[in-house]
Each structure stands twice: as C-alpha cells, then as structure tokens.
Amino acid sequence: MKDDAGRSPNEQITIEHLLTHTTGAWAHGVHDPLRLNAQMTHWELIAWTLEHMRLTRAPGDSFAYSNFGYCILGRVIEKLTGQTYEDYIKENILTRCGIVDMQIAGNALKDRAANEVKYYSSVDPYWRNLAREDACGGVDRDTERFDEVFCPHRRLQGYGPTAFRRGPAYDDYHDRRESLLCERPLCRFTK
Length: 191
Fold this sequence. Notes:
The protein is an all-alpha fold. It has 2 domains: 140 residues, DD-peptidase/beta-lactamase superfamily (Beta-lactamase), CATH 3.40.710.10; 50 residues, no CATH class. The chain has 6 helices and 2 strands. Strands 1-2 form a two-stranded antiparallel sheet. The two termini are 33 Å apart.
C-alpha cells in the first residue's frame, strides 16, 4: 500500500472510509472483529484489531461491509461528545423523533429487557457480545416508532403497525431484518 505522507495504513482511515465501508479491512463475516474476543471491551477490541488484523487494501480502494467500522464510529461519537453512544443517540436523535424506549441489547437471554425482542437463530444468537455491537445495530428499540420515523415505506411492504403485534408477521419481520434493509441512508442502521 502506498505511503500517505508517512502515515501508517491505519492512520489513513477517515470517518468517510468508516461510514462507506471502505477502510481496507474488517469485512463482515467469520473474521469480523466483533465476532472475536467477546470478553474484550470496545476499546480493547479496537486496539487488538488494529495490532493484529492488518489492512488488506489501501483505505478507500474497495468496499467491504464492516460492522467493526461502525463500532469505531460509535467510539468517535463518545470521544467527541463525552457521552456514551447510547446516551448521545437517545438524547440527540431518538427522543427528538418521539422514540423513547431504546436501550443497548443485553448479551444473554437472562439480560433481556421485559420489552426486548427475543432473538432466534439456527445457532445461539447470544454467543457474541451484543452490547459491543451498539453502534452497528445492537439496540433494542421501539420498533414500530423507529420504522415509522426512519422507514415509513415499510408500511407498503406489509410491515405497518398491525404487523408489529406478536404473531407470524412480527416474527417474520425480526427473522428477516437484515434482508429488509432499505437503501435510504437513515434506514441502514436498523439492522
């Protein structure tokens, strides 16, 4: 990789690279840093990843979807605002939209809040550190109000208010959340 004014490849990564999934490494999948070292905090995982998982391409050269990039962006928000990611998002975005029932998801089924969805998967969905995935979608929220504000077109897809009552449509929605992501930028973090 080319040298950018004497900076290391990691030092060349910008906010834009993180937002557009063009960091040069850390693709979503089996080698996603967020799926490794579940005992580590956000900051420990970032330090470990920067040391042990070198970039495979120059920043900006190619696209590779990366939840880990959004984990870093969550820490940028914390560093710049002096607030936790959760508090900042609640106070500055969600509350202003009328969404008042959001929290970071628990790491185990026993940590599940009373109104939190139950996660289902062919493997144990609680095997990883869900709380560490806060900035890349590890939130439990007022799903109906969130979609009403950020993804109103979903009503046209049959996922309106009545679909959010417990039942087949509700369960189907949560089973297919990733496949329902829309192309509108504000909807991308509904995963």
